From TrEMBL:
The keyword Transferase does not apply. Belongs to the glycosyl hydrolase 35 family. Keywords: Glycosidase, Hydrolase, Membrane, Transmembrane, Transmembrane helix. GO terms for biological process: carbohydrate metabolic process. It comes from Petrolisthes cinctipes (Flat porcelain crab). This is Glycoside hydrolase 35 catalytic domain-containing protein.
Amino acid sequence: MVVGIGGEIVERVMMVVVVVVMVMVMVVVVVVVVMVVVVLVVVMVVVVVVVVVVMVVVVMVVVVVVVKGSEGLTYYEHFGGGVAGAGGLVAEGDTFTLNGKPILILSGAFHYFRVHPDHWRDTLKKLRASGLNAVETYAPWNLHEPRQGVFDYGDGGEALSPFLNITRFLQIAQEEDLFVILRPGPYICSEWDFGGMPSYLLRDYTMQVRTYYEGFRVPAANFLDNYLFRLIDYQFTKGGPIIAVQVENEYGHFGYGTDPRDLVYMEFVRDTIVNIGFGESLLFTSDSPTGTQDLGAIPGG
């Protein structure tokens, strides 16, 4: 009887051990399967990321090679820039040529007056390294002429004066193999106070900004004349980096619906830019392809 009971106990213990072992084996199998699945997912994610990165790099390399045209040449060498007498930027249908050669303009915005000049070169180097061939910048009227008739281009002795050395900025851009698209206003928007226009304009209680109104037209012309005069020799056709100049800024938005814009004012801005010596550079206006469309456009701009 004692032996029978002992045998039954052993048998039950063996069954428990077998069950425990089976459970442990199942747990191990499940853990292994889960780990394998996780590893496969991670591998797939890594493969996808690598493929995407490779594709992006290939596309950037292709773009740079296509735009640059000739291996080992800078953009200025390829397009014959850096010397006076070069042909300017020309719009032909939906394409551009620079000095007679086709060019795909890849431009990034970098506003010199927003960044300390110690960082200009580094930022421009990064623009160039990313595959761009041009940099676009606005001109802040309210900083360059903080008091009416008093101009500052880096030598004004004010806290922000070092930020305003536009000629130095243009020199660095050219040294870093970038063309320049200049947007001098007089209104620039740019999420800048009063669109870059100086607040002293509002001393005239009847002021009508961005119109042919004499109280605005005269000081605007004075600023454009003063600002652009010092940049004449920085045009691409004279050996510099400027390939295009914007007339005003998104003027089609200045109004309501299809109401006529002050095109006399726009023609005045265009003529001011041309008469000061920028007739060889491409002039353009900027508006959205839908909505405002050509409401801010003028011939020759």
